[in-house]
Design a protein that fits this description.
single chain, alpha+beta, disordered N terminus
């Protein structure tokens, strides 16, 4: 089962307060629209500026439109597919060029807790492209190993719905 994520960029001008142990969110927001509800993301440009810029460019180009979550592991992560292979719509040349760019790992002290956005990558720490995870629980083993670039600001009820979807095991992964 694929969960389609229609994405639109939404700029919200708000006075966003942050907890003392959490970096400041920028005022920009991105909303993923899924079959199960919307999920709004805020971003940490002071923590991962190159990653945030790259994600914004992918969103502006429409790269996440028709993409899906390929992995939902209850209490751990909901992982958004890499846009080069996860979209149901073909990509144009500009989208493909941006989607294939590799982003330098911007690792930080920000903790991997529920709602955090964290870049996916291969074993090379500088191999992140467009896949990312939304943390569905605390994952301290990921701290300092994956680039945290934002967090969910609205839509936890949608994440709870995703966690209830039927899944299947494929090796170490829990797939939707």
């Amino acid at each position: 089962m694929k969960i389609l994520c229609w994405v639109c960029l939404v700029f919200v001008i708000t006075n966003v307060g942050a907890l003392s142990e959490e970096p400041q969110l920028s005022p920009a927001r991105v909303v993923f629209q899924t079959n199960y509800g919307d999920i709004e993301f805020g971003f940490f440009p002071s923590v991962a500026p190159k990653t945030v810029d790259h994600i914004f460019k992918l969103v502006r180009l429409g790269c996440y439109n028709t993409n899906h979550f390929f992995r939902v592991d209850r209490g751990f992560v909901a992982q958004v597919a890499d846009v080069a292979g996860g979209r149901s719509a073909p990509m144009n040349e500009e989208q493909r060029r941006e989607a294939e760019k590799k982003i330098v790992g911007e690792f930080s002290d920000v903790k991997h807790v529920r709602g955090i956005l964290s870049m996916g990558r291969y074993s090379d720490p500088d191999s992140a492209q467009s896949s990312f995870s939304i943390l569905l629980g605390d994952a301290p083993h990921l701290d300092g190993q994956y680039a945290v670039f934002g967090k969910v600001t609205k839509g936890d009820e949608t994440l709870r719905k995703l966690e209830e979807l039927p899944t299947r095991r494929e090796g170490i992964f829990v797939m939707v």
